[in-house]
TrEMBL record:
One of its GO terms (biological process) is cell division. The keyword Ubl conjugation does not apply. The keyword ATP-binding applies. This is Cell division protein ZapE.
């Protein structure tokens, strides 16, 4: 990232706005995956499903062909049974890399790539019908981190995807949860089974097994600095880059006033994120906002410097035992990687 500013700022002083047009323009792979390809995806030889998934997705994206057997052999695309692929697997197995590889490889005239929360925010900003018209005729819609945390999102996304599939749009999505289990442990999913099943019927589920690549070489806790080390680290960085320095509680409160779709703008031009006096959460809504914030920090590959409790310990056991367990574990993985960066 090219640095255009230096010094120290507080994220709590920023109140970013994002128009519908700006939200649409941002629907491209994040910087970390701007050059992701199938060739650069390193499948773990210990888990055959990773290479199998890569091969299937190359066919889906048109990056590989299969040959017809017989006297006359010619290349042809594999038959497509469903209009979408759904990458189901744990965190850190390369699902987002493969999703971005699909985006880059597919020779589509109109294609979009965004997190689930960005699409729902766009509907909130532009209205449902305007969003349908915007995406109608698109060749490809990539949806990262697909989660249905409330009934409203379930209804909106199933309707939207249903209309787009009917008009010929192909779909590619990632999640830590199989499509027929979305919403479990979060809300009364049984009340919305029809919608959930209708959505899952549009996808071919591709399972990707493996261990978190961020922990293949690194284990342990997130790095914690004492007050003196923290101040020295930020001061030395601020000489040549832009760093943020925020009290943890004040930042968490501020995140409640900024829609998660705008967190990326909150971090604009920031090279290092500083958090003082980190402590465990006692409110699940605040914890989930922090997860969304860390997703954007990680996507932008911004290192974190922190004091207080180790950041991988901010989610208490009762939260880790609940319906958002996979979200929290993904955030912990990213927090450890970001503090060691």
């Amino acid at each position: 990232m090219t640095t255009t500013a230096t010094g120290t700022i507080q994220l709590t002083d920023r109140s970013p706005e994002l128009s519908g047009a700006e939200m649409v323009a941002a629907l491209v792979p994040p910087p970390q995956f701007a050059a992701a390809t199938f060739e650069s995806y390193r499948a773990d030889a210990q888990f055959a499903s990773q290479q199998e998934a890569k091969d299937l997705l190359m066919l889906f994206a048109g990056a590989r062909t299969v040959e017809r057997t017989g006297f006359f052999r010619r290349a042809k695309r594999a038959p497509e049974v469903k209009p979408g692929v759904y990458l189901d697997g744990g965190f850190g197995v390369g699902k987002t890399h493969l999703l971005a590889a699909i985006y880059h490889a597919m020779p589509a005239r109109r294609k979009y790539f965004g997190s689930f929360i960005e699409y729902t925010a766009l509907v909130g900003s532009m209205g449902y019908q305007n969003t349908v018209e915007l995406f109608r005729g698109a060749d490809l819609l990539c949806i990262d981190e697909f989660e249905l945390d409330d009934p409203g999102d379930t209804m909106v996304m199933t309707r939207l995807l249903g209309e787009l599939v009917a008009s010929g749009t192909r779909l590619a999505a990632t999640s830590n949860t199989p499509p027929n289990a979305l919403g479990e442990g979060r809300f009364a999913a049984q009340d919305f089974l029809r919608e959930i099943h209708a959505m899952s019927a549009s996808f071919q589920t591709i399972r990707i097994d493996g261990t978190d690549y961020r922990h293949r070489a690194v284990d342990g806790h997130a790095d914690v600095l004492d007050a003196e080390g923290y101040a020295a680290s930020l001061a030395s960085t601020a000489d040549h880059a832009l760093v943020s320095d925020d009290d943890f509680d004040l930042l968490i409160t501020h995140l409640s006033r900024v829609h998660p779709s705008r967190y990326i703008r909150l971090l604009e031009s920031v090279d290092v994120v500083g958090l003082r006096d980190v402590h465990p959460f006692d409110d699940q809504s605040a914890a989930l906002r922090f997860v969304a914030f860390i997703d954007r920090v990680y996507d932008a590959q911004i290192p974190i410097r922190a004091t207080g409790v180790s950041l991988d310990l901010v989610f208490p056991e009762e939260m880790l035992a609940g319906g958002y367990r996979k979200k929290y574990l993904r955030a912990i993985s990213r927090l450890v990687a970001s503090t060691l960066a």
